């Protein structure tokens, strides 16, 4: 099956179909089950610009709304990361006279709160009113809109050009990326930078992290595809840094073409992706076959544990848990509930699979025999916190990159 690339219009060839899926952060109350939205979750790659993307998309109004339940500051490691980002920008790009920064998708203000406390002009653009209100309570100035060319023009008219446009785990969510990039062109100062951090295709494919694929992640960027996209809109990829967020991301820095000298790391990563054949059809098709094997092995393991009369509880309810539970058809017969520390998720049902989400206290009341680690990107933080589970004889089940029991 072919569709057209959202950036360049080239042919996009499908390589993985994860079946009918709900919106990954569409947590439900029991009476809402019959109203649940689903779509076909399939992914493909552009033959021309190498951009990996969803075949079908969910409208942004369905994904981002007053009931959006992801809070970026929910993890201690996330808070530290974004506070570090803010301090770094304050010491570099925002160190001049009256600088201005715009964050696309500021969520609950975890990054901009530090900028606001420093007295630097800023604006968060966040369409989900509930998390935008949390950001405002932290002293962050927020515009409750979707970022596009029109929004960017209005911001520039009121505030002037932006020295930094920033996004984290947001740019890959925006299906109308052509309008977003035109907006960056309108808003960015002549010497400004557009910095964004996103899940890395290399991590997903080579790390077998198939659960990173869900409705909010419309695009799966590589250095190759970002460089091509930047050039198409008169920009240039001037830096690309690998970071540890969400199991492995890349922080991309774009500037106006010719405005800055690209860092050596850009050419090195481009050459590395070519040598690894990261976007080649055979590489992506093998990834798809591996995902099928993981599904089969995980379900077999969970069924065996149940047959042995033992108990498994899910740990963490991130968006990617929806992909795993629905693709593998994991129901409450195999995993009776999931524990998560986000208050707005507790008392709700995981999308699609309808596993109940409970507070962390339920995990030790009593401890299960096994814990299925959905929030695997926080494994170190979680295991340090849950030493009592291990001491009680509990074992962790992981499925990225392979199914294993620790």
TrEMBL record:
One of its GO terms (biological process) is methylation. This is Methylation protein EvaC. InterPro entries: Methyltransf_Zn-bd_dom_put (IPR013630), Methyltransf_Zn-bd_dom_put_sf (IPR038576), MeTrfase_14 (IPR013691), SAM-dependent_MTases_sf (IPR029063). It comes from Salinispora arenicola. Residues 5-62 form the Methyltransferase putative zinc binding domain. Keywords: Methyltransferase, Transferase. Gene3D superfamilies: 6.10.250.3100, Methyltransferase, zinc-binding domain, NAD(P)-binding Rossmann-like Domain, Vaccinia Virus protein VP39. Residues 245-401 form the C-methyltransferase domain. GO terms for molecular function: methyltransferase activity. The lineage of its organism: Bacteria, Bacillati, Actinomycetota, Actinomycetes, Micromonosporales. Pfam families: Methyltransf_13, Methyltransf_14, Methyltransf_23. SUPFAM superfamilies: S-adenosyl-L-methionine-dependent methyltransferases. The keyword Methyltransferase applies. It comes from the Bacteria.
């Amino acid at each position: 099956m072919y569709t057209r690339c959202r950036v360049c219009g080239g042919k996009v060839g499908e390589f993985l179909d994860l079946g009918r899926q709900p919106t990954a952060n569409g947590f439900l109350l029991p009476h809402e089950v019959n109203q649940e939205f689903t779509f076909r979750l399939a992914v493909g790659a552009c033959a021309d610009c190498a951009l990996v993307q969803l075949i079908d998309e969910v409208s942004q109004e369905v994904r981002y709304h007053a009931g959006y339940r992801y809070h970026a500051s929910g993890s201690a490691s996330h808070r530290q990361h974004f506070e570090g980002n803010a301090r770094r920008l304050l010491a570099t790009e925002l160190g001049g006279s009256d600088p201005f920064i715009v964050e696309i998708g500021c969520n609950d203000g975890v990054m901009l709160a530090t900028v606001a406390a420093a007295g630097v002009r800023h604006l968060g653009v966040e369409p989900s009113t509930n998390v935008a209100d949390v950001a405002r309570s932290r002293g962050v100035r927020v515009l409750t809109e979707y970022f596009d060319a029109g929004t960017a023009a209005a911001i520039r008219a009121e505030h002037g050009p932006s020295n930094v446009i920033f996004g984290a785990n947001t740019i890959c969510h925006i299906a109308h990326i052509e309008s977003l990039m035109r907006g960056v062109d309108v808003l960015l100062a002549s010497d400004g930078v557009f910095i964004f951090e996103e899940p890395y295709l290399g991590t997903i494919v080579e790390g077998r992290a198939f659960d990173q694929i869900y409705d909010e992640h419309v695009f799966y960027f590589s250095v190759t595809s970002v460089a091509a996209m930047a050039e198409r809109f008169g920009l240039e990829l001037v830096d690309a840094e690998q970071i540890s967020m969400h199991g492995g991301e890349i922080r991309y820095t774009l500037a106006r073409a010719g405005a800055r000298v690209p860092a050596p790391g850009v050419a090195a990563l481009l050459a590395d992706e070519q040598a690894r054949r990261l976007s080649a059809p055979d590489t992506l098709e093998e990834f798809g076959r591996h995902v099928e094997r993981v599904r089969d092995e995980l379900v077999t393991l969970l069924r065996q544990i149940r047959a042995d009369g033992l108990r498994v509880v899910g740990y963490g309810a991130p968006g990617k848990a929806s992909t795993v539970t629905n693709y593998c058809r994991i129901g409450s017969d195999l995993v009776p509930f999931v524990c998560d520390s986000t208050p707005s998720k507790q008392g709700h049902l995981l999308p699609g699979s309808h596993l109940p989400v409970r507070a962390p206290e339920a995990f030790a009341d009593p401890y299960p025999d096994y814990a299925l680690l959905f929030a695997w990107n926080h494994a170190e933080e979680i295991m340090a916190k849950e030493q009592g589970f291990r001491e009680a004889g509990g074992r962790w089940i992981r499925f990225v990159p392979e199914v294993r029991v620790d």
